Amino acid sequence: MRHSQQDGNNSTKELIEILRGINLQSSPVELAKLFTKTIDERNAARRCLSLALATIQDLETHLDEHRSILMETQAILSEHVRSEQGYLSFLMAAEPRWILDTWISLPANEKLLGVVEYKWSRGETQRALNELCLVRKGIPTSGIDWILCLLIETAILCSCDEHLAAHSNADEALIACEALHREGNFTVARELSGIANFLHGKVFMAEKDWDEAYSAFSEALFVPGYQSRANELKAIACRESNREEPQSESSSEESEDSADS
Fold it and tell me: Which one is the CATH code of 85-246: 1.10.10, 2.60.40, 1.25.40, 2.40.128?
């Protein structure tokens, strides 16, 4: 009923627009011709619009087909990369395998991120991001794998000085980690959120926001593999921000022992 009223209103508006252009001195025959011409033009416009919409739909179908072919081709190329000697050497490198002092390549993530990490480590940043896009299409938009994809993208963006996008990605990863924590994956959620904070810290350092960098690195001191570097960068941020570094318990005990002796 509502649609019928709307169609009636549209027809009334069309009629008003037509009447505005009519010469009141025109004869009935001329008016009839004018109405007929207007209706023909309207119908022609509708046919053109229908044709244009059909063309757009056809192009979208072809585009989806080309995307599918591209994804299949990229998947084949990814498998080819895994057989390259350079890739095998990359996997055999001594651990931890740091990439640009920003990301640790772990054997456990090889199946998901190995090719992305390898291309990024070779300086093929855009190809690495393209590969990551392919990986994302094959996994759910939540969970551990999705968070890992967010984190490595954050690391790549950080290395490209895309600070705003890197911060945004890291924030999204932290939100996803909260959901993971609520599901009961406490240890994994804590470690992944620590990596997100480490990456936040790296971006804050690049932005010379030393106070924020200090706080971010403080949240990454418990992450396996990252804790030593996080502690070093935290000390740098502390020095640059003129902040007084809290003395650790072990240092306090050593000082007390020295004083007693």
Answer: 1.25.40
Token pair for 96? 């931890």
| SS3 category, 25 | coil
Which residue reads 């011409």 in tokens?
A: 37
Q: What residue type is assigned to position 16 of the chain? A: I
From CA 99, how far away is CA 106, in angstroms rounded? 11
177, 147 in Cβ contact below 8 A? yes
Q: What is the pLDDT of residues 3-40, one digit of tens each?
A: 445 555 555 555 555 555 555 555 677 777 777 888 88
**Token representation of residue 127:** 């190809």
- Residues 31 and 19: their CA atoms lie apart, in Å, by 10
* Whole-angstrom Cα Rg for the chain: 31
pTM of the model: 0.65
Angle between helical axes of 110-121 and 85-92 (0-180°, round to 10): 110
Q: Checking DSSP bridges between strand 103-105 and strand 97-99, what pairing results, if any?
A: antiparallel
